[in-house]
Amino acid sequence: MNEETTEMIAFQIISNVGMAKSCVMEALYAAKDGDFKLAEEKLQESKQFFVEGHKVHASLIQKEAAGDRLELSMIFMHAEDQLMSAETISELVKEMIDMYKTFGSTTGK
Fold first, then answer.
1. CATH assignment at residue 45
2. Considering only Cβ atoms within 10 Å of each terminal Cβ, which end of the chain, N or C, has fewer?
C-alpha cells in the first residue's frame, strides 16, 4: 500500500471519529440540560460515525494480515490515537449521562 493511500485512509478515520467525538460531546451537553432524548439521538449519531471509522481501520488490519504492509506515519498514528480517544470518551460520556439521569441535570429539568 502506498503512502498516499495510507494517508487518505488515515484522514477517513480522523474525520469519522472526529465527528463521533463531536456528537458524543453534544450528547453530554444535552444531558446536562436535561434533554435526554436529544442526548440519546446524539449518542446514536456518534456511534454511526465511530463504526464508519472503525470499518476503515479494520480494513487496514485485514490488508496487513493478507501481507500488504503499511507505511507508518505520524498521520496514521494520529488516526489511531483519535480512534482510541473517541472510544474512551464515548464510554465515559455514557456513564456521565447515566449519572445525570440518576442525580438530575444542572438546570433542574
1. 1.20.58.80
2. C
Give the other-Cβ count within 10 Å of 65's Cβ.
Answer: 8
81 assigned binding-site residue: yes
Per-residue cell: 16: 469519522
Residue-range definition of the domain harbouring residue 7? 3-103
**Which of the residues are catalytic?**
78
AA letter at 6: T
CB 86 within 8 A of CB 21: yes
pTM here? 0.87
pLDDT digits (tens, 9 = 90+) for 45-104: 999 999 999 999 998 889 889 998 887 889 989 999 999 999 999 999 999 999 999 997
How far apart (Å, rounded) are the C-alpha atoms in residues 18 and 45? Answer: 12
